[in-house]
Design goal:
The structure holds two protein chains of two kinds. Helices cover 59% and strands 0% of the residues of chain A. Chain A has seven helices and no strands. Chain B is an alpha/beta fold. Chain B has twelve helices and 17 strands. Classes of the chains: A mainly alpha, B alpha/beta.
Chain lengths: 140, 552
């Protein structure tokens, strides 16, 4: 079972904090999003995704070093945002796919269960009475 | 490894405990037969069902793991078979009825005679019986599982000899506006029939109107699943044993070509045998066909009951067309949007048949309006693809949950049986028990998209009239994964069908296939109620034969 390296984990924490910043309420840093993304990569439902994530995180590190001569995790929030905006423009579909899936996994970590993420987004809505049981769209 | 022999000769052996096996278990045990039900999956209790969005929608606990028990699929676009979850319904006591949304419509009378009405098209065929014959069993199924609705509320449904046992469920106040918009367009909206208790029924509570319905096991017990509504009553007769964790690998036959029982694996991989006078295969259409194909013997070298090569043919899923639109609460002060309620419950059957010129085949389907799920990951699903991240993502997610209401519609329409869509055994891939897996060959006729697109537009018109915005296409003539039928076609002619009108294998006098496999055509509505009703119908016939001494 492949594992993220220490550098990759730091990069993951640093990018999660920009995807879900700690502004206007808690973000990835306060809600353990990076840890939950790393754990999700080991699950069967994401079987086969590890290489994509590994390469994607390495690329972020490389882009930060090239643009700012500093590692991604050490870069400032503005610098990291700049790298992410560039990433979204690169004409390499696997990288864009990596970023889209990373956003998705970060959101799952943020609002996937009861916690500060729920309180931030306002789930369950006030108008929902009783036990706001979790649910999801019917399978297609 | 030696095979352990079983618990004595039973009257009835039922393989699978879903919408096919459940009614048989209840009706046969009530009539005095000694019944053994073998279910591959586990038996869940209400408190076992996850109320967790990731667990339910991402880890998909009801469906087997691709690494252990895949199906494989080939389509005109694939170059090699791909492992897939397509065609798995649910592996547990109660089968798919445990997590269904429980949309329990009846078919239209002409669903039973499409070929007579429209002529030959792809591989459609008339059923070997008609609406009049199954109608009393629709009544029975509605009563046994508890269906909530209003009979006769749409002029398009067939005749009804008894009302629904339960009144319709409550709905979001927006339903009134949607009904009015339908009527202004000349449509006839009616309450969506649901197999969910609108009042306490059969010692089960009424619906709690929570946010975890379609796709989820019901923690309240209000959903009329086979497991809640039928199995416990079967067990209380004292004549029905339900054994979970039993994977049937082969049906046994004697020298005379009669079924004698089955061999199954327990959860440790040990083999066991059980014997019965009559065997019922109720494993859902893909797996029932697979089990017959795996059951080879000198008398049936190509698989049990497969002398004409038709086991696995005429596989049908269901046509699925879905769309969604939003209302920003603050933009519609005149609309009652602020309340939260999971259901709209408005159905329309006016486009069950299509006008000329829409498609080669003039068959549409029923559609239903409902509230979109409001759970956080479902809300994110509406934003995914926008590429949003950062503070804007957080704010939009919050806005999606707090400031908007989303309405969704689903069209159920026929999957046309065709000669390119069928099941056989994969020549290479094996499951964790070492058995060849089912390989699905899938080709979707262009009619599905044409029909789906047209009805989609009609549904959007209604929502647009009410003021919805941000229309999204979720699926146009897509293919359901979990509504599966057709693989053991029932018919009068043993040359062109696997089963007789009573779902008995033409070639094996004491073998029945009673689940979705028998359906000659898949209907323009969800088929679950029809599968339940047919199973009660077959049970009555079997009871008559048993009392006449046909099974020794």
């Amino acid at each position: 079972m492949p594992e993220l390296s220490d550098l990759q984990r730091r990069t993951l924490a640093a990018v999660a904090e920009r995807i879900l910043p700690s502004e206007d309420g808690p973000g990835a840093a306060e809600t353990g999003v990076a840890e939950s993304v790393a754990a999700a990569l080991g699950e069967e439902r994401l079987w086969g995704w590890f290489p994509l994530f590994s390469r994607g995180l390495d690329r972020l590190e490389a882009m930060a070093r090239e643009a700012f001569e500093i590692g991604f995790a050490e870069a400032s929030p503005e610098q990291r945002d700049e790298v992410l905006r560039c990433l979204q423009e690169i004409p390499e579909p696997p990288l864009r796919h990596f970023f889209a899936q990373l956003i998705r996994l970060c959101v799952e970590g943020f609002v996937g269960q009861d916690g500060p993420g729920w309180r931030y987004v306002g789930y369950p809505p006030e108008e929902m009475e009783g036990d706001g049981c979790l649910g999801g769209p019917a399978p297609v | 490894m030696s095979r352990r022999s079983g618990s004595g000769l039973r009257d009835a052996l039922i393989l699978g405990s879903g919408a096919g096996g459940g009614p048989l278990a209840l009706a046969l045990s009530e009539a005095g037969l000694d019944v053994l039900v073998l279910e591959k999956g586990p038996r869940y209790r209400r408190e076992d069902y996850p109320a967790d969005e990731i667990e339910q929608t991402r880890r998909r606990p009801f469906v087997p793991r691709l690494s252990e028990e895949p199906h494989t699929v080939v389509t005109p676009k694939t170059t090699m078979p791909i492992r897939t979850e397509l065609g798995w319904i649910a592996v547990c006591v109660g089968g798919g009825t445990v997590h269904m949304g429980s949309y329990l419509y009846r078919f239209h009378p002409d669903d039973f005679r499409l070929r007579s009405r429209f002529g030959p098209y792809e591989e459609i065929a008339d059923w070997p019986y008609g609406y009049a014959e199954i109608e009393p069993y629709y009544v029975r199924a509605e009563r046994e599982v508890g269906v909530a609705g209003i009979g006769g509320a749409t002029p398009f449904e067939g005749p009804r000899s008894a009302p629904y046992p339960l009144p319709p469920l409550d709905s979001h106040p927006l339903a009134r506006q949607i009904e009015e918009a339908c009527r202004r367009r000349g449509l006839h909206p009616f309450p969506t029939p649901r197999g969910i208790n609108s009042r306490p029924y059969q010692n089960r509570p009424a619906c709690a109107y929570c946010d975890a319905c379609g796709g989820f096991g019901c923690r309240t017990g209000a959903k009329g699943s086979v497991q809640e509504a039928l199995i416990p009553r079967a067990e209380r007769t004292g004549r029905c044993e339900v054994r979970a964790g039993c994977m049937a690998k082969e049906i046994l036959v004697d020298r005379n070509g009669r079924a004698t029982g089955c061999v199954y694996f327990d959860t440790e991989g040990n083999e066991h045998e059980e014997r019965a006078r009559v065997v019922f295969v109720c494993c859902s259409a893909v797996e029932s066909a697979r089990l017959l194909l795996l059951s080879r013997s000198p008398r049936f070298p190509d698989g049990l009951a497969n002398g004409n090569g038709l086991v696995g043919r005429h596989l049908q899923f269901h046509g699925v067309t879905m769309g969604e639109a939003s209302f920003r609460i603050d933009r519609h002060p005149g609309l009652p949007l602020r309340p939260w309620h999971p259901f709209l419950g408005v159905s329309v059957m006016d486009h069950y048949f299509l006008p000329e010129g829409v498609s080669d085949f003039p068959k549409g389907g029923v559609f239903r309006f409902d509230m979109s799920p409001s759970q956080p990951l479902a809300a994110f699903g509406r934003l995914a693809g926008s590429g949003l991240w950062g503070l804007e993502l957080k704010k939009r997610l919050r806005e999606e949950i707090q400031d908007k209401r989303n309405v969704f519609f689903e069209v159920f329409h026929d999957f046309l049986p065709n000669d390119r869509t069928f099941v056989d055994l994969d020549s290479e891939v094996r499951d964790k028990w070492g058995l060849p897996v089912a390989r699905i060959h899938l080709d979707v006729p262009p009619h599905h998209r044409a029909a789906g697109r047209w009805v989609f537009d009609r549904a959007c018109e209604v929502l647009s009239d009410v003021g919805a915005e941000d229309f999204r296409t979720l699926s146009l003539g897509g293919t359901s994964s979990y509504l599966v039928h057709g693989t053991c076609r029932a018919g009068l002619d043993p040359r062109t069908s696997v089963l007789d009108p009573w779902c008995r294998a033409h070639e094996v006098p004491n073998l029945y296939v009673v689940d979705g496999s028998f359906l000659p055509t898949s209907g323009g509505a969800s088929p679950t109620l029809t599968i339940l009703a047919n199973s009660f119908r077959v049970a009555d016939h079997v009871i008559g034969r048993w009392r006449a001494g046909d099974f020794g």
